[in-house]
Amino acid sequence: MRHGKKFNHLGRTASHRKAMLSNMATSLILHKRISTTLAKAKELRKYVEPLITRAKEDTTHNRRIVFSYLQNKEGIKALFGDVVEKVGTRTGGYTRIIKTNFRLGDNAEMCIIELVDFNELMLKDAQPAKKTTRRSRRSTPKATDSVDAPAAKADETKEENTGE
């Protein structure tokens, strides 16, 4: 029975799976975006997000722990350098999975997994989001003030003109 076993073995032995996820995590950190199958991307997300969280605090201990997972010096430099610069304020959710299409050979569902703060196109679209206002039947105090304000200014100018 497999009650409560949520780990996807991806049809590989433990050593093969560990090496594959390590290589994929290094590629994701170095290239900021990779294309893979949906199952691998979901497992990679669980593998790489704790490493990014650990990299936020740059200590020798954290570097050694992350190195034990990645086994790549260039990946460590990139992770503790420019990746942490961009995601330092984020509390989680460092990766995004975008489904693309199905692979021709075996019809596997393909996707793109990317680091969220490095996609310039989506960041550009997200910034100019304009503020939406709620329409309700009640009149707001601001609306009545703005209607009364021009009349009040007109009364003040009449009083000033008559006073001179």
TrEMBL record:
InterPro entries on file: Ribosomal_bL17 (IPR000456), Ribosomal_bL17_CS (IPR047859), Ribosomal_bL17_sf (IPR036373)
BP GO annotations: translation
Annotated stretches, region: Disordered: 126-164
Cross-referenced PROSITE patterns: RIBOSOMAL_L17
Biased composition (Basic residues): 131-140
Stored Pfam families: Ribosomal_L17
GO terms, molecular function: structural constituent of ribosome
Top-level taxon: Bacteria
GO CC entries: cytosolic large ribosomal subunit
Record's subunit section: Part of the 50S ribosomal subunit. Contacts protein L32.
Listed name of the protein: Large ribosomal subunit protein bL17
